[in-house]
């Protein structure tokens, strides 16, 4: 699928769906976990999922990449996969890959069966609904009356959380052309009284922007602390919620955390301080450096005595020379940085 | 041939561009490459055979640091050194005119005059030989060096015919010459006649003028504007051109640059002052001075161009480059200090980054000199060397970039491009 533009640079070489918010499981396999927990067979469709479908019974992972025009909006690929989805006559989930939450698949499936309509969408409360598309629904049944895009006056504080479940009947509504499910399909379904809203419990974040990705990461780690604290890292020099891949190596006299995720094969040398960062697979952070609110891309090399802060994002295979200061730098992949970036900017 | 040297050290009203560093210690005592600025002058003078006495001249009030320094210097260099305090700021010529009897006492038939705020190779013997060569015992010699056309306008410009000066202009507004005045002179007693003439003229002018401006004094005489401009073309003023290193030390940035020049010179003149890589010691890159009482962790990486003062503590994994760390300062683990002057007894917390912007002259131009930038340009602080005044505390994990922190300030967050009062 086309990479959402806001997410560059890491995504210039990979789809945002594979940037892990946690080191071991990708988002895709976490959905799979949830699905099997919910004991409902169903296909998981996420734009851009690269893995091929497995022919085994039970939860099927991924789907064949839709052939043809991959520049469709979310609805287009559904039409392309029409045959796969319609087979079996069961409802199927549709997920936006750039949201993070606790993915209540079981509850959503139950909710959908109960009302019997064509579609259910998960909604979540936000503080600033005007930034998003707002959902107006009946309080008891959850039936959606209408959508309002970016309302200027307060209408509702519930927005579309990007998780849907549909009955196969929806496929009749979608034609084989670029279609926006939110703009074209949903309003029509709402008019027909076929769309219902289920309110999300727990955290939710749109992680399309690097700044929000880090916020979402913090929320996810907090939820992990509540539910599976044994998965978090602990030890000398670890502060707060920290997730470290077993294959990563952390040196002496480091202080890591709070809110840090460290990917597979990462090497953190001695005397490094990391706060509120995601460090992706294979990266190396050299000694005495200081990182706060950063995303360090796959296979990057951050030099010694480097200071990076304020949502600095390094794409894949970026080299940052020793003793530099990066403040809000967005660095595209395969770049070498030899000069400090004292004020936020993009390095191409 | 009895020789003397006079070092003009100015006073508190001068050297204001050196604030906040000049709040604690008189500018001439500020350490450059590990020793007080003026000690480099004294060392050079002491090397000249026949130099009988060194006179420091300025209008600082009696100062404990100054007296201690003079006592120590006398002991070390085995040459009489005295401080002559002007009763007011008398200008670069007014002071030596006022103290002419002291200077000439003991039958001195020639004397050097050196500005304290220059950094130089001090080719004093060469200047003496040069004067010997062309035979005129009543002539005066100015040390000159080459600057590029744009920067020459900031200095005293010398137009020379062969070696005699035809013309002298101080800080012209249009291009006059690339040869500039280094602030190091060799005079004979005859100079006092010429200064005396200027003094007379001033007095006459003052008498004519209405006494509106109370600060005007007849005794305030400037060598450059009042004496040299008149003497040029008289056949009495010679210029000895040098290609050796030379720089003014007007601002904190130029102190770091001057440090580098002197540290480079140490490899020939004082190799014992340069730190060496030793097992169990810190990693040294380039020229670094470390005071014997400083305590530096073996995982620290220092240099190039670093001076570590007395009693300084440098923690594990610290990186220092192009900086001067003054007495008693304490740098905690993993800090990174670049292009900075860290004031006396200051503290820098763990993982902090303290960084300035160098104002070095263009390395591709052999005649480029360091610019004395104005503090502000277009309403914003010009990026320059970061200065931490005396007893400043920088907390852990912050960044201090291109900022000046006044003494005794305890910071609580990061700062960039600011003067913190």
Automatic annotation (TrEMBL), chain A:
Residue ranges, compositional bias (Low complexity): 9-25
GO terms of biological process kind: GDP-mannose biosynthetic process; GDP-mannose biosynthetic process from mannose
Keyword Nucleotidyltransferase: yes
Entry's EC annotation: 2.7.7.13
Ranges that cross the membrane: none
GO cellular component, one term: cytoplasm
Single GO term (MF): GTP binding
Family: Belongs to the transferase hexapeptide repeat family.
Protein's name in the database: mannose-1-phosphate guanylyltransferase
Lineage summary: Eukaryota, Metazoa, Chordata, Craniata, Vertebrata
TrEMBL record, chain B:
Gene: GMPPA
Family to which this protein belongs: Belongs to the transferase hexapeptide repeat family.
Originating organism: Gallus gallus (Chicken)
Highest classification ranks of the organism: Eukaryota, Metazoa, Chordata, Craniata, Vertebrata
GO molecular function: transferase activity
Chain ranges of the Mannose-1-phosphate guanyltransferase C-terminal domain: 284-420
Domain spans labelled Nucleotidyl transferase: 4-205
SUPFAM superfamilies in UniProt: Nucleotide-diphospho-sugar transferases
Protein name per its UniProtKB record: GDP-mannose pyrophosphorylase A
